[in-house]
Design a protein that fits this description.
With about 150 residues, this protein is of the alpha+beta class. The protein has helices spanning about 10-35, 35-40, 45-60, 135-154, and strands at about 1-5, 70, 75-80, 85-90, 90-100, 105-115, 115-120. A hairpin with a 2-residue loop joins β6 and β7 (about 115-120).
Length: about 150
């Protein structure tokens, strides 16, 4: 059993939101203490907008990531929020990898919805590269193995 999800997932899902909203609260607190908001109330608009935009970006890009994904040969073991599910490779309909996003993501579309829905999204382990469009070896391997598993199923 090999872990194919990134170790950054905990940081992205738990620590990054605390840092983001903590920095916004510190900014507003300093502005309140210095009296800048009393002089120009529009000063609240930027942190409020950043809080709203940050929420929607994190909801779309980060909070939907699975905590851990393990490769078990002919299946994947997926863990999220204390629950886990084993997904046979033959039940994966499609594997797509987004390379131009940060963090990089692999999306597995399932033939039948499981415990976590009909899509499993996770951030894969990736070697360091300066090329933002480099193909992820985990995604490439999964694509080949899922295709082979689906061919055997037919």
């Amino acid at each position: 059993m090999t872990k194919i999800s990134s170790r950054q997932t905990f940081f992205l899902k738990k620590v990054l939101p605390v840092l983001w909203y903590g920095a916004l609260c510190a900014f507003v607190g300093i502005a309140l203490a210095s009296g800048a908001i009393g002089k120009d109330p529009i000063f609240f608009a930027a942190p409020a907008l950043m809080a709203v935009v940050g929420f929607f970006v994190m909801r779309k890009m980060i909070w939907g990531l699975m905590d851990e994904v393990y490769d078990c040969g002919d299946s994947l073991l997926v863990r999220n929020r204390g629950e886990q599910e084993s997904i046979p490779l033959a039940s994966i309909m499609n594997v797509s990898a987004s390379t131009a996003t940060n963090p990089p993501r692999i999306t597995l579309r399932l033939a039948k919805p499981g415990k976590f829905g009909n899509e499993i999204v996770f951030t894969p382990t990736a070697p360091f590269t300066f090329n933002p469009f480099a193909k992820n070896p985990v995604a490439e391997d999964l694509m080949v193995r899922v295709d082979e598993a689906r061919s055997k199923r037919r």
